[in-house]
Every structure is written in structure tokens, then in C-alpha cells.
Write a structure and sequence with these properties.
114 residues, mainly alpha, 2 domains, 0% strand, rod-shaped
């Protein structure tokens, strides 16, 4: 008789384990079907952040207000080409960055150190 109860306990434990594994597998499938959930659990943040309200504007998002328009017009007059995408910004060489800063300083009338 004890063999029957032991076998029954073992069967219940195995069934319980299989059900919990099935639940975990379904949860993993669900998270793989929704990449946002998967990435959030991995610690990544959303790539699209809400617009900040306490800053002038963000030219990388295409926002331009008066200050940015004034700077953009001054840059356009110099003939300097500004990067238009994140990739272009990241691909810039340090000499390009320094040249851009020097040109901006000259346009604003600041002294440029040689």
C-alpha cells in the first residue's frame, strides 16, 4: 500500500513540475512575442523618449525654435554642412568636430584659439 501512495506522490510532484514548467515556457514565449517586454526586463530603456519641456528644442528631432533657427541660418551662411542623422554625428572625426566648433565660434564673433 505504501508503494501506491509513494507512486501517487511522485506522480503528483511530476505533474505539478510539468505544469509549472509549461507556465514558465508560455511566459517566455509571451515575452519573446513582445520585444518591448523582453528588452525592458533586460534593463534597456525605450529608444523613443518623450519630448523634454524645459529645453529650447532638439535639432536631431527636427525641432527648431527662434534660437535654433538663428544658429542654423548663421551656419547656413558659412556653408558648413551639419550632420543630419545620429549615424553621421557618431561617424564624425575629432578634426571635424573641432572645425565645426571653430566655425561656430567665428560666426558668433568669439575668438578662436589656433
Amino acid at each position: 500500500m505504501s508503494d501506491d501512495t509513494d507512486a501517487m506522490l511522485l506522480m503528483k510532484a511530476l505533474i505539478s513540475k510539468m505544469e509549472s514548467m509549461d507556465t514558465e515556457l508560455n511566459n517566455m514565449r509571451k515575452s519573446m512575442n513582445t520585444p518591448e517586454l523582453f528588452l525592458k526586463r533586460a534593463g534597456f530603456v525605450r529608444a523613443k523618449t518623450p519630448q523634454a519641456e524645459d529645453v529650447w528644442g532638439d535639432p536631431l528631432r527636427g525641432d527648431r525654435d527662434d534660437v535654433i533657427n538663428k544658429a542654423a541660418n548663421a551656419i547656413d551662411e558659412t556653408g558648413m554642412s551639419m550632420p543630419s542623422s545620429n549615424e553621421e554625428w557618431h561617424d564624425m572625426d575629432w578634426s571635424d568636430i573641432h572645425a565645426m566648433a571653430d566655425t561656430a565660434a567665428q560666426v558668433e564673433g568669439r575668438r578662436v584659439d589656433a
